[in-house]
Amino acid sequence: MISFRSPVDAHRGLHEPASTARPRQQQEGAGIQISSKWRDFAIANWHLGFTAFGGPPVHFQIFHTKFVDKLKWIDEQMYQELFALCQGLPGPASTKMLFCINSIHGGFLSGFLAFCIWSLPGAIGMYTLSLGVSKIGETMPSPVYALLSGLNAATVGIIALAAVQLSEKAITDQMSRVLVFLGGAIGMLYSALWFFPVLMFVGGIATVVWDYKWIHNFVKRFRKPRAENQESQEDTVQAQGDTTSITSTNTATATTARQRRRDQDTILPVSTPSSPQPYIASPPAEFTDEKQLLTWRTGTFIICAFFTTFIAVMVLRGTLKAPPLPYSVFANLYLAGTIIFGGGPVVIPLLRDYIVGEGWVSSRDFLLGLAIIQAFPGPNFNIAVYLGSLAVRHNNTNFPKEVGALIGFFGMFSPGLVLAAGVMGLWSTIRKRRWTISFLRGVNALATGLVYTAVYRLFQTAVLDEEYSGGRELGIDPFWVAVTATSFVGGRWFGMPPFLAILVGGALGVAWWGVVKA
């Protein structure tokens, strides 16, 4: 290749001193480094919004494979901490996870752009779906119900597989095993809005008590000292036979101590070995400069500012007698995005109460959106875009439907992301303490158990038809259970990606309709 250069530039380059040429080379190197950084960011994130099917449990597994195993952006310890942290904060857990990973690796701008790439494809798809749903009648063609049932059945198998894989990483001892079991079992029995965060907090306290052996030490105080008496008798007999050797050892020890005192006065201080401490939980390595995104003061300010705006929105929501419909929709979704802990198992019943209960969206349209979002890539919280658009459109307001979609998007996503950004400013300080690691280990185990709750709840409402638009359990027909097993086995032992399992489930549903219903 022939390159053209100005004669003035050439003459300037010949006579340019080395002191001015060196900064120019550094600037060129910095530019190459920046372009490489954004190229790596684009390669890692561009496709996730189109290929990450299966909901939050599957998303976590995808993120672990990509960012921990392949790219090495974070290590296993950091991943487990972020997993517990994102489950312990309100809002969409997998979205916060992707935001935090990219922010740690490349700064908050990378985190925000990753969030946009991740969420916008599904959000645009759900908005387009709302335009079509608003024009259909009360019932849909029978093949559509079969297609949706097949998609839901395959999704159940994918989430069940993700639950098993997450459990293999979360279970590290008997206590974490018990907490995973209790999280799944109790979550199936009781699902109040306040219950999941309280359950995860109790799990964190339980692992702190277990790791610090507070109960073990308490029980030892009241244990009968029979074994101790026998050991003391044996020690007495052995001590009588070794009196001479002990005496000589004590003499040598005293001589060594006197010599050390003389050495301390004359030469250098001699460091004595510290007594061994019981291992509880080793604190992680400190943040590097790249990971130190915010100071703790800035993080505290962000959290306080968020709760100030939250209180203002809720006060206006309760005091205004006839607020505009877009504001009411935003306030309800903003409240839902702030108080939802645990992700998928909680968001569906809560949005039913806050949107369908207000009369803004019909129950049929809500369940149709629920079935479709299970087969869409990206975060399940994109259903808020669908609901916001329908709420504004069905109530004959003067506001355009795009306003409702944007209200739903920002209302549901902004609380979790803002709180995640603020907590990351505090995390570099908090994570150095041993009790923090123990606490998050319990939160991680309980959150993993709640994934089984999501499997159970979707299992109960996965099959749709003309008679039961609210959904029926998969066991109504063994064929749907076989579809679930197919997606689980295909992903577990044959490496079938989640999006392919979803497509196979939909195709099997249509095939079932052709054989049984047509």
Automatic annotation (TrEMBL):
One of its GO terms (cellular component) is plasma membrane. It is a multi-pass membrane protein. The keyword Cell membrane applies. The chain crosses the membrane at residues 104-124, 144-166, 178-210, 294-317, 329-351, 403-427, 439-459, 496-516. Pfam families: Chromate_transp. It is found in: Cell membrane. The keyword Transmembrane helix applies. GO terms for molecular function: chromate transmembrane transporter activity. Residues 1-29, 248-279 are annotated as: Disordered. Keywords: Cell membrane, Membrane, Transmembrane, Transmembrane helix. Residues 248-257 have a biased composition (Low complexity). InterPro entries: Chromate_transpt (IPR003370). It comes from the Eukaryota. Belongs to the chromate ion transporter (CHR) (TC 2.A.51) family. This is Chromate transporter. The lineage of its organism: Eukaryota, Fungi, Dikarya, Ascomycota, Pezizomycotina.
